[in-house]
Structure formats: C-alpha cells, structure tokens
Amino acid sequence: MKVLLVDDEEELVSALAERLSYRGIEASWAGNCLDALALAELENFDVAVLDVRMPKMSGIELKRRLQKKRPAMKFIFLTGHGSEDDFKAGSGEEGAGYYLVKPINIEVLIKRMKEVLG
Amino acid sequence: MASKLDIVGETGLQFYGKMSASLSHEIKNALSVIQEHAGLIEDFTVMAEQGAPINPQRVKALAGKIQGQIDRANGIIKGMNQLAHSSMDESAKSVELREVLTLLVALSHRLASVRGITLEAKPPATAVTIRTTPFFLQNLAWLCLDFAMDGAGDKKTVGLSAEKTRLGAKLRFTQLEGLADAPTERFPGEREKALLETLNAEVTIHIGSQEIVLTLPGDLDH
Asked: Which of B34, B40, B115 faces A19 most closely, judged by CB atoms?
C-alpha cells in the first residue's frame, strides 16, 4: 500500500509517515497542496490522507485535483471538526464516508485505509 | 428592525464563536502532533524490546518537539482565556493597544493562514493606552482585519500597527495592495457601524496609502 499524507502541520505528517513505515506501509508526505500535486505527478498512490483545512487550497479541492490526475486514488480526510455532521456541513462532502477527527489513532487510520481499498 | 444593542450582542457572539472554533482547531492540531511524537517514542520502545537499539538523541529531539507543541497549545489557551475574560467586561476600562494587537494576531493567525495571508504586527515601542470596552474593541478590530484581508492583494500580507493621537489612538491595517479591488461598498456594514457607534470610533479607507484606519477616542466615557 502506498500512501500520500498531506497536512500543513508538517511535524504531524512526517511523524505519521515514519510510524506507518514501521508498520510496513510506504508513506510519503507533503506540507502543502502544491507539493502534494507534484508528488502525485511523480508517483501513483493508493490512498491520500488529506487535512480538510489547509492554507491556499482546501483538502476538498486538493481531492478534486488529485482525482483528475489519479482517478483510482482513494481518499480519507482528517478534520479538526467535532463530528461527522460538522465535517459534512463544512466540507460539502455529503458522500465522503471516510474521515477521521484529529487527533487520530494510527491503528484506526490503517483500518480505514484498508477499508477504502476494499 | 434590530436595535444597535441586539446587533452588537449578536456580532459579539459570532466573533466569540468564530474565534473559539478556530482556536480549538489549533489546539487539536497541537494535540495531534504531540500524539504522533509520543507514538514514535512508543514505537521505539517496542522496537527496543525486540532488540533494536534506541537512539537517545532522537528521543531527546522528540521530547523537545513535544514540549514545543505544549507551549504552542498553552499560548492558544492563554489567548482564549484573555478573550473570555474581556467578553465579561461590559464597561470601559484601560486598554493597552499593543496587547490588543498581540491578541488579535494570536486569535486570527489560523484564519489568516487558511486564506494564505501573513499578519505582520508592528506594535509601537511605547504603550498606547485608551479607556474603552475591550471585547467590543477586539471584535471591531477583527472585523476590520477580516475586511483588510480581502484587500491584501497579491502580496498577501496585512500589517497591523497602533499609534497615540492627540485625542486618542489609531489602529492601522496596512500594506493592502488590493484595497482598490476590495468590495469597499459593503464596509463598514451594519455590524461594524453598530460597534463603531458603541465605541464612538470611526473607520476610514485610504485607497492611495493602501490602509484602513480605525480611530478611537482616548476615553469612551468622556
């Protein structure tokens, strides 16, 4: 499984990528949306884990752009919102079934990633 | 038709809610980073139990990063606390505008960052003190900053400064390169006008010098 982690909290995604690597998951990270798009240009990721609120471009917009480049890519959102309803209201992603509220549990994240990949 | 008091009250509640939501989001981010760094230390101990050596320098660096995030969260909570206390002050009191600017930047940092805006506070070297209602002033200063960010233009920077005047003080929102293109017809709106009246203040837009100036009386009660 190849994972792309994107959050402007670089300390968060870099640590998370390292922890995933100890669990046998190949993870790359980006601290902004432009870097994420550049990485997706170079590599094909199975799953992208995206923060919803980032400077300049939201995670929702990033998902749309990544989907254009990589139609098979699956997505999980990270949000600081308190509940699923808050997230859906804030993101407009009514159909986005996969989201995790920060702070996340790495084992739950791995379980969700496996679920989105079927 | 809503009275001035209703508008001021509703605007204050919106301001308080917006800031609380943004700051709690920031705290969640700090907690998330702490969780992953602590998780890494836990991973190292599990690996050590399986025979892999622990790198003390790495653990020390992670502990330092955790402390940094604790300091960050503590600073955010301090700002929330200041805002909460100021919301309880209904009457005028002595307010130092350097502190108002510092708190405004602390409260607005994330909201500005999401819009790609950098806030540059340039507080004066000496104290600028007026007597006013702190929460209403903080609210009005935020509304001015919110609009100023619309006028930041391509430079994506808003400067904030304060200065003493003969009759009171001025707060300036500067470096607004895109102010000419901002929707100036909607500013000040109903909410800003109600707060301006309550604080006996005035706001002016200066397209030429690319700034918004909030003029405040030295003593709200006189």
From this structure: B40
- Both B162 and B190 in a single domain? yes
Q: How many CB pairs under 8 A join A and B?
A: 52
Residue A45 CA to residue A47 CA, distance in Å, equals 6
B98 and B196 assigned to the same domain: yes
Q: Do residues B31 and A102 touch, judged by C-beta distance below 8 A?
A: yes
Domain that includes residue A53, residue range: 2-116
Closest approach of B111 to chain A, Cα-based (Å): 9
A107 in reach of chain B (CB within 8 A): no
Question: Any CB–CB contact under 8 A between B55 and chain A?
Answer: no
Give me chain B's average pLDDT, please: 94
User: DSSP alpha helices (H): ranges in chain B?
Assistant: 4-49, 56-86, 97-114, 134-150, 190-198
Q: In this predicted complex, what is the ipTM?
A: 0.90
Residue B81 has pLDDT above 70, yes or no: yes
**Predicted structure pTM score:** 0.87
Residue B48 buriedness (CB in 10 A; 0-12 / 13-18 / 19+): exposed
Residue of B24, B40, B120 lying closest to B73 (CA atoms): B24
| Minimal-distance CA residue of chain B relative to A23 | B43
Q: Judge whether B129 lies within some domain.
A: yes
Q: Is B116 helix (H, G, I), strand (E, B) or coil?
A: coil
3-state SS assignment for residue B212: strand
Chain A hits for B114, Cβ within 8 Å: 53-55
Domain edge (last residue) among B86, B119, B134: B86
